[in-house]
Design brief:
The protein has 77 residues and is an all-alpha fold. The chain has one domain (11-73). The chain has three helices and no strands. The longest helix is centred in the middle third of the chain and has 23 residues, at 27-49. The protein is elongated and about 55 Å long.
Length: 77
């Protein structure tokens, strides 16, 4: 895939990206890989947390706190 857009980054960001690049990997490929890895970690964290509140009243408590906070803030927000 050829680059069709350019983005400006600080020298520090470029150096960090250079350090993350694998041999023979383009900047675009490195950015794609890093994003894919982050998305995968985020999905795994969601999966790990799924069901943690099962068989507890934590969800109801969280909703109650949210409702109380919304009531305290008022309808303007």
């Amino acid at each position: 895939m050829s680059a069709t857009e350019q983005i400006r980054v600080s020298p520090e960001v470029k150096a960090a990206l250079e350090a993350e690049k694998q041999p023979g990997e383009s900047y675009n490929e490195a950015v794609e890989r890093l994003i894919e890895e982050r998305v995968a970690r985020r999905r795994e964290a969601i999966r790990a947390g799924a069901g943690l509140w099962e068989n507890t009243d934590a969800a109801d408590q969280a909703k109650q706190v949210r409702d109380e906070m919304n009531d305290a803030v008022g309808p303007d927000l």
